């Protein structure tokens, strides 16, 4: 059975511990049964080699660098940042670098299902984005700030791929819904959201929700993405004031 957005929202509301059998975050992604080929491809990959040279924790850093170059995500107005699907921490490394270059004090919080050490200058919470408790923990971290304290939400979350395209896509949509719910609650009016998603049947549904939520919405596949993967990024800038109910309403 395919779960629609309304069903996913209901499941979020009902979740206690927040566990869901489909959801495994980026840090738990498997390399498939062809692990030998995967390792060989990794060792020969230009971005992987560059990441080692420049001390990034993964090649994913270059995806965010490219997105930021085009859409100017980081500015002196950016103070509080949430990085969802944090492990192994490459996006947070980029965020720290960008804010240091701007000479601007910031608070950067990484969130992931698995434990991972936070780079110096950032913080980490272990939790599931589909859990209300995780949302509460993130809120608590920024509790000294105003009601909607976050300027930028980054999500490089991806479900553990099963090889069944529809299942992988719908699991990715669940994660996007979790990031958008968090953004409804915590992202400032005028703030930005970047999300990775696995393309499929609900791409237009996702686009319409983002267009409700932001004044400008863009999609792109950075050059650092592997051609054979069905991943893309959706970028929302200049957030509108919107409730969760309005976002998921028909």
Low-confidence runs (pLDDT<50, min 5 residues)? 1-34
Q: Please, how many helices?
A: 9
- Quickly count the domains: 1
Query: What's the CATH class, please?
Result: Alpha Beta
Rounded mean pLDDT is: 83
- Helix and strand composition category: alpha/beta
Task: Write a brief caption for the model.
The chain has helices at residues 5-14, 35-44, 46-53, 61-71, 90-102, 132-141, 165-186, 203-213, 244-248; strands at 80-84, 107-112, 123-126, 150-155, 187-198, 214-220, 231-239. With 250 residues, it is α/β, with parallel strands linked by helices. It has a 7-stranded mixed beta sheet, sandwiched between helices.
Structure, explained:
This protein is α/β, with parallel strands linked by helices. It has a single domain (5-16, 24-248), classed as 3-Layer(aba) Sandwich (Rossmann fold). Helix content is 40%, strand content 20%. The protein has nine helices and seven strands; from the N terminus they run H-H-H-H-E-H-E-E-H-E-H-E-H-E-E-H. The protein has helices at 5-14, 35-44, 46-53, 61-71, 90-102, 132-141, 165-186, 203-213, 244-248, and strands spanning 80-84, 107-112, 123-126, 150-155, 187-198, 214-220, 231-239. It has a seven-stranded mixed beta sheet with strand order 3-2-1-4-5-7-6, with helices on both faces. Helix 7 (165-186) links the parallel strand 4 (150-155) and strand 5. The longest helix has 22 residues, at 165-186. The protein starts with a helix and ends with a helix.
């Amino acid at each position: 059975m395919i779960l629609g957005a309304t069903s996913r929202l209901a499941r979020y509301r009902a979740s206690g511990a927040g566990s869901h059998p489909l959801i495994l975050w980026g840090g738990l992604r498997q390399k498939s049964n062809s692990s030998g080929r995967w390792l060989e491809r990794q060792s020969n990959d230009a971005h992987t080699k560059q990441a080692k040279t420049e001390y990034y924790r993964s090649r994913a850093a270059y995806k965010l660098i490219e997105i930021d170059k085009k859409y100017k995500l980081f500015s002196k107005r950016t103070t509080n940042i949430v990085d969802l699907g944090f492990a192994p921490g490459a996006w947070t490394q980029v965020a720290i670098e960008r804010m240091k270059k701007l000479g601007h004090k910031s608070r950067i919080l990484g969130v992931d299902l698995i434990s991972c050490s936070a780079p110096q200058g950032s913080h980490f919470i272990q939790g599931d984005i589909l859990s209300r408790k995780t949302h509460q923990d993130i809120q608590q971290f920024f509790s000294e700030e105003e009601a909607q304290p976050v300027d930028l939400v980054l999500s490089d979350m991806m479900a553990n791929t099963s090889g069944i395209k529809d299942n992988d896509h719908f699991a990715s949509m669940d994660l996007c819904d979790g990031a958008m719910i968090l953004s409804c609650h915590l992202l400032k009016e005028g703030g930005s959201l970047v999300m990775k998603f696995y393309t499929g049947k609900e791409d237009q549904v996702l686009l319409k929700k983002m267009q409700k939520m932001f004044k400008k919405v863009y999609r792109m596949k950075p050059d650092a993405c592997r051609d054979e993967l069905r991943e893309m990024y959706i970028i929302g800038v200049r957030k509108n004031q919107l409730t969760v109910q309005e976002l998921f309403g028909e």
